[in-house]
Amino acid sequence: MVARVVDLRSDTVTKPSDAMRAAMAAADVDDDVLGADPTAQSFEAEMAATMGKEAALFVPSGTMSNLIAVLVHCDVRGSEVILGDNSHIHVYENGGISTVGGVHPKTVRNNPDGTMDVDEIVAAIRSKDGALLYPTTRLICLENTHANCGGKCLTVDYTDKVGEIAKGHGLQLHIDGARIFNASVALGVPVDRLVKAADSVSVCLSKGLGAPVGSILVGSKAFIDKAKILRKTLGGGMRQVGVLCAAAYVAVRDTVGKLADDHRKAKVLAEGLKKIKQFTVDSSSVETNMVFFDIMDSRITPDKLCQVLEKRNVLTMPASSKSVRFVLHYQISDSDIQYALTCVEKAVEEILTGGGKLEHLANGTTKNYYGH
Length: 372
Ligand SMILES: Cc1ncc(COP(=O)(O)O)c(C=O)c1O
Ligand SMILES: C[C@@H](O)[C@H](N)C(=O)O
Known about the structure:
four-stranded antiparallel β-sheet, 13 strands, binds pyridoxal-5'-phosphate, 372 residues, 14 helices, binds threonine, seven-stranded mixed β-sheet, Aspartate Aminotransferase, domain 2, globular, Aspartate Aminotransferase, domain 1, alpha/beta
């Protein structure tokens, strides 16, 4: 009997479906570095059309996809990119745009809804008069949905407004659209319209869409031609990559239609968590597939709660020193949610009655902490 595991750590944990595995096995492949893998070529063309852009490039990860985008847009020494202080590119990508690309980050405060105030964006744009002293602004990055802001959606009006600012100042606009399909579904806006103002978009196929690996980077043909070279520079050129693109094609075909149900399940989970008096959950702010909640009782730390839940095979991750994040995906069922809620209630009781002991790892740290 296989033990039931409810994995709410992230939507990155989705495992390939049988249809994806079958497509991988049957994929028509060739060396994509020496020419063009036929499956990759058709998948890239399909995704470019879906996103309303000229061209697309399959990339091994969202981190590499964002890095390539920033480096293509900021291909002159002394470049600066305006991005959110709580953005994935700034917080979770090892500072790659600087350490690898030599691009200077100019952070602007992220609002709780994932936006950056447009007047703060404008104020962050370097004056050309200061060229002797300052870096040169070349790019603005947005993130939609915004992972660290609870999976919030950036509206099409806001995105268009930032696009106008970029264009008006001779800048490019990149969207980290790891979960752009979640935003499109939640807002009821076609994905190509949602990203119309962007010069480039990175889309994760390996999150809620359920593909085992990869992201797709879209933009103009000239942009993608440069991106392809940079992907090779970074070691991301792949040989018979059609095996992965075949799974990604199935993911887009089969799973986009399930994202609305992920959002519904997130609200069900949030409503259940609200009933636990030691937690504060703003369920009205659950827009997509993420639920963040604060723990108001100091006896219950996020690490301790996650460790006690893990003993019951409910996997999740701390989001900060006093909050926890649950992420829903299509491989979580409604009964999984009810089971998880029961386990959370029991875990709280166990901790408050002294049952839950925090096991520190050898180096004194605790597990899975995505600290800010
Ligand atoms: C908003 C966002 N952007 C980019 C990434 C990076 O994707 P990957 O894990 O494939 O590098 C992630 C998560 O992984 C993410 O949540
Ligand atoms: C943590 C972060 O890198 C990952 N994208 C996630 O949301 O799980």
